[in-house]
Amino acid sequence: MNFGVIGFGNIARRFAQSIPYTSGGRICAIASRSLSPEDPVLRSSPGVRLYRDYGALLRDPEVEAVYIALPHKLHAVWAVEALRRRRPVLCEKPAALTVEEMEEIARVSAEEHTYFLEALKTKFAPGLERLRRDTALLGPLRTIETCFCYDASEERDSFLFDPAQGGALNDLGPYVAGFPLALMSGRAVREISGALTRQGGIDLHFQAALTFEGGVTALLEGGIDQDRARRAVIRGELGSITVPDFHRLTGYEIALEGRPPILRRFPAPGDDMTGEIQALIDDVAAGRIESPRHSHADTLQILRVLRDIRADGASAL
């Protein structure tokens, strides 16, 4: 499948490194307003066309699917434009900034019968299904803790610090909320509370609690103001599971009372982005318009949770 890439910052470079590990994927075109024609990516791939206009890439008849790696506020508009041209879309997270934007994406995807997937790589990690099964070892679950914080203070000119699209919730919320929502799939969220640390219209840090039906509580933390260990901890009556770098989920450790630790590792071809790219290729070949592993409804659920965290946190400021 021939991919056109819209936007070519650091994450798109990682996409370019990941796609050779897929079965049938390749980049045929890049649309970027800043990429140099002498860039090593283009010099090493002379058949890849460079466009300065995003729309021109979508008009390229060789482009069979689109990967969108633009700043957050441009995701929805170019996702809709690509879907209207019946190009399957893999869009970086967050797929949209509002519930209403994602509802439009889902509507256009259905109208055009064209595939759309938010690039939430956690859902395509090879160990996720095994982790879901292993939570049964813990007995009745009590809490799921997720923490993803990093220091972005040197990136003050980044869109991360643009009040119209930046902040920790938009950037990290899909990971820290998406993980417990994936584990608790099928259980409704009964209560949401949140606390924000804001500066200049930007949420630099957030903490939140989600209470699921059945009483399990997810404790979320994300920030662009400090470095902390990125991990998830799942606790039950009989023990816990610690997942380092849970957003990638390449392994975890199970600690049960009175038993030696159990280590799980999940080697996979390529890297943590390869799975989501392959999912698009396979799903489109199967005639689907969304992924059974990360559906449009899943993306909407995350956005609703983030909206409610923001509203509750803002009310307490």
From TrEMBL:
Gene3D superfamilies: Dihydrodipicolinate Reductase, domain 2, NAD(P)-binding Rossmann-like Domain. Residues 138-241 form the GFO/IDH/MocA-like oxidoreductase domain. GO terms for molecular function: nucleotide binding; oxidoreductase activity. SUPFAM superfamilies: Glyceraldehyde-3-phosphate dehydrogenase-like, C-terminal domain, NAD(P)-binding Rossmann-fold domains. The keyword Oxidoreductase applies. Transmembrane segments: none annotated. Keywords: Oxidoreductase. Belongs to the Gfo/Idh/MocA family. This is Gfo/Idh/MocA family oxidoreductase.
